[in-house]
Specification:
It is built from 8 helices and 19 strands. It is globular and about 50 Å long.
């Protein structure tokens, strides 16, 4: 099952079930009970969404897609989590996950422009697998971690590298408005299967920049859920961006950063393609 959040023609946010190149609206039927997809997840009603999606059938190309969960309680990002990326940075493999956070305001949906800020021209791409939590939990053991996963999506952790390097904290380079993206939809956990069996590719203007099996993760999905939930309760709709592989623009020679007119795409087998054009701020 694929579900998405989007803006209707009049600007009203809604959500629905994706069927091929169309979506079937569920918000009109369910909005009184579940205001958004996060509320659907919190009520453990995702599996019932297809039978409740009785609204209009709309062409996907005719709507503005939002991140699948536009208003998560938290977006937790993992740094240095692919062995190839750790190698290209010249660092040792971390003993524990490296964690930073993004704000929802820094994220847009599929086919919505990413903004390169005026403050920097070091705007980099990072293709990632995003995990969406469906069931709340604290101190979740790795053996039971998948019970708490609602589904998966593509994620681009767009990074303003010089700001990221201002201090040892990544926050400044990861939270420029509309610098990252997620989508195009959420694929339910049962439809996606084992993340380690999937692969990911990031392209810039059609040229492959990153290509990796997700099995190359240093800390896999259960390990991340176990560690993060030791610190904080994971809530329905929370997003874990699991890290990026090698090939980012910062470590290329010469460096390669995104500029206005570029298009970046993150493709994950079993999900689809997240695509965004780049524009300059202002």
């Amino acid at each position: 099952m694929r579900v998405c959040s989007y803006l209707m023609a009049d600007g009203t946010p809604s959500y629905g079930v994706v069927d091929g190149t169309t979506l079937i609206d569920a918000g009109a039927e369910l909005r009184a009970r579940f205001s958004d997809l996060r509320a659907v997840l919190a009520a453990d009603a995702l599996a019932n969404l297809p039978e409740k999606a009785a609204g209009d059938r709309i062409e996907l190309s005719g709507v503005t897609l939002l991140p699948p969960v536009p208003n998560p309680d938290k977006i937790i990002c993992i740094g240095l989590n692919y062995m190839t990326h750790i190698k290209e940075t010249g660092r040792d493999a971390p003993a524990k996950p490296s964690i930073f956070t993004r704000y929802p305001s820094s994220m847009v949906g599929h086919d919505v422009d990413l903004i390169r800020p005026k403050a920097s021209d070091w705007f980099d791409f990072e293709g990632e697998l995003a995990v969406v939590i469906g069931k709340a939990g604290r101190a979740i053991p790795a053996a039971r971690a998948y019970e708490h996963v609602a589904g998966y999506s593509c994620f681009n952790d767009g990074s303003v590298r010089d700001f990221q390097r201002h201090t040892t904290q990544f926050w400044a380079g990861k939270n420029f408005d509309r610098s990252g993206s997620m989508g195009p939809w959420l694929v339910s956990a049962d439809a996606f299967g084992d993340p380690a069996a999937q692969s990911m590719t990031t392209t810039l203007n059609g040229e492959v920049m990153q290509s990796t099996p997700i099995s190359d993760l240093a800390f896999d999905v259960p390990a991340l859920i176990e560690y993060i939930s030791t610190v904080t309760e994971l809530l329905p709709g929370d997003i874990i961006a699991t890290g990026t592989p090698s090939g980012v623009g910062l470590f290329r020679e010469p460096k390669l950063f995104m500029k206005a007119g570029d298009r970046v795409e993150v493709e994950i087998s079993g999900i689809g393609v997240l695509s965004n054009a780049i524009v300059d701020e202002g």
